[in-house]
Design a protein that fits this description.
InterPro entries: G_CP_dom (IPR030378), NA-bd_OB-fold (IPR012340), P-loop_NTPase (IPR027417), Ribosome_biogen_GTPase_RsgA (IPR004881), RsgA_GTPase_dom (IPR010914), RsgA_N (IPR031944)
Distance between the termini: 46 Å
Largest sheet: 6 strands, mixed
Structural class: alpha/beta
Shape: globular
Helix content: 10-25%
Binding site for Zn(2+): 249, 254, 256, 262
Enzyme class: hydrolase
Strand content: 25-35%
Order of helices and strands: EEEEEEEEHEHEHEHHEEHHH
Number of helices: 8
Strand order of the largest sheet: 10-9-8-11-13-12
Number of domains: 3
Number of strands: 13
CATH superfamily of the largest domain: P-loop containing nucleotide triphosphate hydrolases
Bound molecules: guanosine-5'-diphosphate, magnesium ion, zinc ion
GO biological process, one term: ribosomal small subunit biogenesis
CATH class of the largest domain: Alpha Beta
CATH topology of the largest domain: Rossmann fold
Radius of gyration: 21 Å
Subcellular location: Cytoplasm
Length: 294
């Protein structure tokens, strides 16, 4: 049997498509408990022209996943960048955006926010408000786009990166993917039937090559983004507006909820910290507090 290295480009249940030397092998991991994910580099044994067996995982540089009280789900690995796609339609959820940013911060992966569907008239005000807070106040990069028209602005961002597109269903991730990689032929506009039916919650993220050194991963099926795996003590570091003032509270282990002498609370009262972001912070902390009871 020949052994070689490959890249996991997508998965279906216990099958992983592994690309190696320009060929794609349907692969399984015999007798291994390890779960593999898009972006993993693995060692494979070639069985025949179409099939291989995964024998080993090359250690990951990073791994992003989501989790709730009961389980966690790995999404992708070895990323250099997270493009968080949002749009005024069909159902913008600011908590989802905040969760994606915390995910990026906690994994030390650079996030970029894409506001898509700028061709819709209601996008102008929407984009202005979000730009004020997320770019001008918090310092995140924002790109405004109409993927239906073109995605040329993304070219420079995607070069020499492995980028994961995340966002709620219907924001335009697959449309962007098809603009960037026409051969991807990703299905668009197919939200209701398949992504939201309870039985089909498996995500089929797929990696596409833009060029020899740039990859794009389209990831469907995320409606919520649990962060149950975070350490409660570290969460404040993932909020730029809190991070910059840590150490100024009376208690060194202040969680910035109701402690006396809390600098963050003071700043909130002076409107120096956005109240919705702070409310999101509190929800996250209070959710993580329930972990202790298990
Ligand atoms: N008006 C408008 N519609 C868009 C744009 N980009 C995508 N759409 C539409 O939004 C719907 C969902 O797009 P899709 O790419 O499937 O979203 P995904 O679920 O994030 O992959 C489709 O009907 C697209 O045609 C855009 O820039 N403007
Ligand atoms: Mg899609
Ligand atoms: Zn505090």
């Amino acid at each position: 049997m020949r052994q070689q290295q490959g890249l996991v480009i997508n998965s279906h249940g216990r099958f992983f498509n592994v690309e190696s030397n320009g060929k794609v092998y349907q692969s399984t991991a015999k007798g291994k408990k390890t779960e593999f994910v898009v972006g993993d580099t693995v060692a494979i044994d070639i069985i025949n022209d179409n099939q291989a067996s995964i024998t080993e995982l090359v250690p990951r540089n990073n791994l992003i996943y989501r989790s709730d009280h009961y389980r966690s789900k790995i999404i992708a690995s070895n990323l250099s960048q997270l493009l968080i796609v949002i749009a005024v339609k069909p159902n913008f959820n600011i908590g989802f955006l905040d969760s994606c940013l915390i995910c990026a911060e906690s994994s030390a992966i650079k996030p970029v926010i894409i506001i898509n569907k700028m061709d819709l008239p209601e996008s102008t005000e929407f984009a202005q408000k979000l730009t004020d807070l997320y770019a001008n106040t918090l310092g995140y990069e924002i790109i405004k786009l109409s993927a239906l028209n073109n995605c040329e602005q993304l070219g420079n961002y995607l070069k020499n990166q492995r980028t994961l597109l995340i966002g709620q269903s219907g924001v335009g991730k697959s449309t962007i993917t098809n603009q960037i990689c026409p051969e991807a032929n990703a299905k668009t506009g197919e939200i209701a039937k398949y992504e939201t039916s309870g039985r089909h919650t498996t995500t089929h993220a797929t990696l596409y090559h833009i060029d020899g050194n740039s990859d794009l991963i389209d990831c469907p099926g995320l409606q919520e983004f649990g962060l149950f795996h975070l350490d409660i003590e570290k969460v404040a570091w993932y909020f730029p507006e809190i991070r910059d003032h840590l150490g100024n509270c009376k208690f060194h282990n202040c969680l910035h909820l109701n402690e006396p002498g809390c600098q963050i609370k003071t700043m909130l009262n002076e409107n120096l910290i956005d109240s919705n972001r702070y409310a999101f912070y509190c929800r996250l902390i209070n959710n993580l507090k329930t972990k202790k009871h298990y």
